[in-house]
């Protein structure tokens, strides 16, 4: 971020009056440009015992498996975002049941929400961001080929709840990636 | 949003290839500038039976009562955001218990999260964004002077759970404001 999106002026980094953090402030018009975490919303959707997974056709993690999920858009609710992403990525129609996982990802400035959901019918497909979609049994989940840590967390939380016969909200904050 | 924050070029509104929505796209460098909902995070914090409320010293809704809450910052978790906001606005130290309300506010492009929390001690104060803070009994809550619909929802959800002796997550999507 180098230029002011309002007037095109050069941005400086400074702590505005009454604030305690450095922000991008326009040297010309004074506009303060805040940067805030983004919401990624998706679902663990099932048809009978099987779970809907998609194989990614895009980077990052092309070819790896994920739950249907994506960036929440302006003008929608979190449940609408999960429903839309599932339709876009897996061509699947769902009914939302309840929020299942809330995962903060501070090092990527994101918060991931995963809903528990029920497929309305077993029709699934591959949207433009997916190579394929599958309805998979728990014992066949390719754990070593899951795209993101938050997806593994949400899947394991759902499976533990299902095994226990009781569903709740699971919260987690992911640590920074290990440096090698 | 008129200028590209990367190169200072003029922005145009167009649907990028592979997308289905109009976005701000730079006519010069091609950068796509997405706009996404912001997270507002706060808490219903209690000391014994009393609830922590703050009276706003800033617009919007100057002089009205609110739960401590504010925009989540990059680099923190949702629970850290609630803890920080409570310290900043009410000078109060809390221990987070669990997520209590998730409220989508589509017409303002926001998602509000409220945690249930316990004050670590009864010391409270007024941060720069508050005129005063109080620990208030349920029967004294000034319902007609609550700043925001989401705050009323979160307070009522908490009070209903406390009366029932069982706490859960309450989800809601606020309708657009009535036009007069």
TrEMBL record, chains A, B:
UniProt keyword Hydrolase, yes or no: yes
Residue ranges of domain Nudix hydrolase in the record: 36-159
A Pfam cross-reference name: NUDIX
Stored SUPFAM superfamilies: Nudix (SSF55811)
Record-linked PROSITE patterns: NUDIX (PS51462)
Listed InterPro entries: NUDIX_hydrolase-like_dom_sf, NUDIX_hydrolase_dom, Nudix_N
Keyword presence, tRNA processing: no
Gene Ontology MF terms in the entry: hydrolase activity
Keyword tags: Hydrolase
Protein name: NUDIX hydrolase
